[in-house]
Fold this protein.
Amino acid sequence: MPDFISSPGLFVKEQKPRPVGGIRGVIYSVTGGVWNLGPGQKQRQEEELGRRIARQLQGSYNTAVLSLKGGIGKTSTTVGVGLTLAEYRGDAPCAIDANPDSGDLVERALGEGIYQQSSPRTISDLLENIEFIDSLTSLSRYMHHAGRLHLIAGEQDPEVSDSLTAEEYLRIRKLISAYYSVALTDCGTGVTHNAMSGILQSADNLVIAAGYAVSGAKRARSTLQWLASHGYEELARNAIVVITDKDEVSSRVDKDAIEEHLAGICRELIAVPHDRGVADGDLVTLDGLKPETRRAYKEIAAAIVDGYR
């Protein structure tokens, strides 16, 4: 016969998780926990997304976020997903601004005013001193912090912003991999700028940003086809396509037609609804987003971590 010391679980009644929100949460609160119906389907789905995002990883992984057109949610996706990873993971993620066109990743994460008041160190400063960086403490001097999301700012001088080479990016990626298990790289527009071959070479998976229109779906498809025809078939096949409704046009767009256009050539398609917290091109904070937008970023973050093998 089992005894309490060797098998204590047999003598303890399993407690259902506490329901949060909804009628189940109300019943739990009103009855002081006497009636516990357990979490509803929505809460269980949210908790499962959190577990997928928080999965422990062995090694360091990198996700590249790219598009063929600017202004369609690439940087806001990088920030929103980065903040979501930071919220759920035990280790802090890193986001790198490799946009050759004076990227604004850090401004979107911190707010332009705070960024200008801080020491505006950029990716160029990091490269200039990279051989002297031998600890996370020394690396942090070249980074910015939006809560637990650590960021490397892009070069703002237009004369040198396009000078980042593939070799230089790979040096940065090697450094980051020593201290971070998850990195996001905001690649800028296009797939042929100087650093892109290094970014693709070191990427474990991709997020393709697209606008919420048939033309946006066509650009995303063109990007995936270019990748597949230039030696990146596996990245294209496992890519996550994110369609952001920045201009509130979803009611006039045939979503089924867009999904059909992209079906079979990417691993997952996720839509981000229209949200002023994203569309205004200003500071992105999780608290300032609609619940539906936060849920979409959680789905993207979970899909990204699912792709790390």
